[in-house]
Design a protein that fits this description.
Elements: H1 2-16, H2 33-37, H3 51-54, E1 65-74, E2 78-87, E3 90-105, E4 111-129, E5 145-157, E6 164-177, E7 187-200, E8 204-206, E9 211-212, E10 217-226, E11 230-237, E12 242-251, E13 254-263, E14 265-276, E15 279-287, E16 294-302
Antiparallel strand pairs: 1-2, 1-16, 2-3, 3-4, 4-5, 5-6, 6-7, 6-8, 7-10, 8-9, 10-11, 11-12, 12-13, 13-14, 14-15, 15-16
């Protein structure tokens, strides 16, 4: 029933969805090196601070406090990074995208000046299990179901009066089982997630008077943990994108990852994570068939 309902919502969002514009594409870049190395398949997993971006309903299971930062360099084009924090039920993050110096030309193609093009985004989210909500605590599987809410603010800095601002709300959901399956004992746990993006949000307003609507988009994700060492995840979006990811943790301190995603073209990704005491360093490398490769590293500190 949960899967059927998620697919219905996914198809409904597909009927009214539009492609992201270039200015709002900062929200397509993701967060953290771990999900990126897994092909971006994280909506059904959402088991660490990266849940803030991919599926904040997963914040309902977060314990303690974590601080996560990452930086990505696309050689010859742009840089992207974020600083985020997550604690039980809540998460906050600041993201930036810097395209660097852009040449301004006249009608003959002569460079007459340069200007900067930057995007800044602030994200705040919350997640809670149904068992923690008075009006839902008696529903079946209340301990396994969580809901969330994600708010994001976008600021675009470019030539005046072209700069603009906008905000939108996302609605996430997650069903998580952390108990071994009686029928399939090799499955140590699984999760089914859904996030509907830009469900509510006025158009992005520019100083020039131009307005740009937030397109609605939905993503359904499923993740399985096998024999406490391997995680398999898959996401499908209303924009006909597919994401596949795998993570193998042969020893507690090291994780190896691989993924593939389809967003008009197929892109492969590889990465790994190393944990030492309260620190985790993750690295991801993405191969694009036509554009420059992505390199992203992230550092997480736990308390």
């Amino acid at each position: 029933m949960l899967v059927s309902g998620a697919l219905v919502l996914l198809l409904a969002a597909a009927a009214c969805g539009e492609d992201y514009s270039a200015v709002a594409s900062i929200f397509e870049l993701g967060m953290g090196a771990r999900p990126l190395a897994m092909g971006g398949a994280f909506v059904g997993l959402a088991d660490d601070g990266n849940a803030l971006f991919y599926n904040p309903a997963g914040l309902a299971w977060v314990k303690g406090l974590s601080l996560l930062s990452s930086y990505e360099l696309r050689l010859g084009t742009a840089s992207y990074g974020h600083l985020s924090t997550a604690l039980s039920h809540f998460g906050f993050g600041i993201h930036y995208f810097d395209f660097g110096e852009v040449p301004e030309t006249d009608e003959f193609g002569n460079v007459i000046d340069t200007f900067n093009y930057r995007n800044y985004a602030f994200v705040a989210a919350a997640g809670a299990r149904a068992a923690e909500l008075p009006f839902l605590m008696r529903m079946p599987f209340a301990e396994n179901i969580s809901f969330g809410l994600k708010a994001k603010i976008l600021r675009i800095n470019t030539l005046d009066p072209g700069s603009g601002t906008g905000f939108a709300l996302d609605l996430p959901f997650l069903f998580r089982s952390e108990s071994p399956s009686s029928r399939f004992p090799f499955i140590a746990g699984y999760g089914i997630g859904l996030i509907v993006e830009n469900l509510i949000g006025p158009p992005i307003q520019y100083g020039s008077g131009h307005q740009e609507a937030w397109p609605k988009k939905a993503t359904v994700g499923i993740a399985f943990e096998l024999i406490n060492q391997v995680i398999l995840a898959i996401d499908a979006t209303s924009e006909n994108s597919l994401r596949f990811g795998a993570e193998w943790t042969p020893i507690p301190a090291v994780s190896l990852r691989a993924g593939i995603r389809r967003e008009e073209v197929w892109m492969w990704s590889l990465g790994m994570g190393v944990r030492y005491r309260n620190f985790v360093f993750d690295f991801a490398f993405v191969i694009h068939p036509y554009l420059n490769s992505q390199l992203r590293g992230s550092l997480t500190v736990f308390w």
